[in-house]
Amino acid sequence: MKKIPNYSIPRVGPGENGEGVYLEGEEKKIGEEQVKTLFMNVLASDKISLDRSIPDSRSRECLALAYPKTLPTASIVIIFTNEFLSAVLRTVHSVVNRTPPELLKEIILVDDQSDREELREPLTEHLQRFGSLVKLIRSTERLGLIRAKMRGAREATGDVLVFLDAHCEANAGW
């Protein structure tokens, strides 16, 4: 099972503490071209740790709120089609790392018929480190966003459903 990082220890590296990633030389050219053609700088994303630290962005008012000691469990449903592996994995890692274990029933990834090779075996192998906490459903036909969400919802066993984009990061207290 995956070990949760200790974010109280200062970390250094690309993208740590929510800092930007700056490429130089040939890498900068590649990144700029990726943004034009892929709408994402995959090279920069791949350099960022899947367990990166990000600053707590909650307001003072939010930090002052008191929540009940017992809350319902959550099934997190994440739909993706041809996202980049590092983005999908960083989303999963951030949810696992920043969700109280007693609240996180499961993460359900629904692959809405991706054809990117990195989303096949490399994704499946990586997800094994989470054991039964992360479930991967692969659609054999293109469902579209809403039907893919419904497919994930049908598999969910938590008390509450939470839908997340495949290219976001959960923050502290999310």
TrEMBL record:
Ribosomal protein in keyword set: no
Pfam families with a match to the protein in the record: Glycos_transf_2
Gene Ontology biological-process entries: protein O-linked glycosylation
A GO CC term attached to the entry: Golgi apparatus
Top-level lineage group: Eukaryota
Source organism: Strongylus vulgaris
UniProt keywords, alphabetically: Disulfide bond
Protein name per the record: Glycosyltransferase 2-like domain-containing protein
GO terms of molecular function: polypeptide N-acetylgalactosaminyltransferase activity
Domain Glycosyltransferase 2-like intervals: 75-174
Lineage of origin: Eukaryota, Metazoa, Ecdysozoa, Nematoda, Chromadorea
Entry keyword Transferase: no
Cross-referenced PANTHER family: N-ACETYLGALACTOSAMINYLTRANSFERASE, POLYPEPTIDE N-ACETYLGALACTOSAMINYLTRANSFERASE 1
